[in-house]
């Protein structure tokens, strides 16, 4: 199973030296990545900040930067932030869990998606 995904930002992050960082890696999110930021006071004051914290947790590499933190994500160009948000959605929501089931009438086995929103 692939857990890390390479990317290239459309514009790139410009650091304090003027160097542009475009190529990076994003990992799959964990439950903790989505739950723990909810305790952060910045998220409690502004729900929009959740995206910043989430991305700072799952973007593991960006150019030659030694660390990726909220300050880096905050200073991305809007186009790059939108790119990473879209990528986050695509890699974390691309596959719905499926269950193998057996038809009680004909005995044929098939897979059905598990949809947590139905109920």
Provide the low-confidence segments as ranges: none
Mean pLDDT: 90
Main sheet: strands, sense, barrel: 3 strands, antiparallel
Order of helices and strands: EEHHHEHHEE
Largest sheet strand order: 1-2-3
Q: What percent of residues are in strands?
A: 25-35%
The oligomerization state is single chain
N→C terminal distance: 29 Å
Please report the number of helical segments: 5
**Computed Rg:** 19 Å
Please provide a written account of the structure.
There is one protein chain. The protein contains 5 helices and 5 strands; from the N terminus they run ββαααβααββ. A hairpin with a 6-residue loop joins strand 4 and strand 5 (109-113). Strands 1-2-3 form a 3-stranded antiparallel β-sheet. It has a two-stranded antiparallel ribbon with strand order 4-5. With 119 residues, it is α+β, with helices and mostly antiparallel strands. 34% of the residues lie in helices and 28% in strands. The protein is elongated.
Name its key features.
single chain; 119 residues; alpha+beta; 3-stranded antiparallel beta sheet; two-stranded antiparallel ribbon; elongated
In short:
The protein is an alpha+beta fold and 119 residues long. The chain is built from five helices and five strands.
């Amino acid at each position: 199973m692939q857990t890390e995904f390479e990317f290239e930002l459309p514009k790139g992050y410009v650091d304090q030296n003027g160097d542009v960082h475009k190529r990076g890696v994003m990992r799959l999110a964990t439950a903790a990545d989505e739950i723990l930021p909810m305790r952060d006071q910045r998220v409690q004051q502004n729900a929009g900040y959740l995206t910043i914290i989430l991305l700072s947790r799952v973007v593991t590499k960006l150019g030659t930067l030694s660390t990726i933190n909220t300050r880096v994500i905050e200073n991305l160009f809007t186009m790059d932030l939108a790119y990473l948000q879209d990528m986050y959605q695509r890699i974390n929501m691309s596959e719905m869990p499926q269950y193998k089931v057996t038809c009680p009438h004909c005995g044929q086995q098939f897979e059905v998606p598990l949809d947590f929103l139905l109920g």
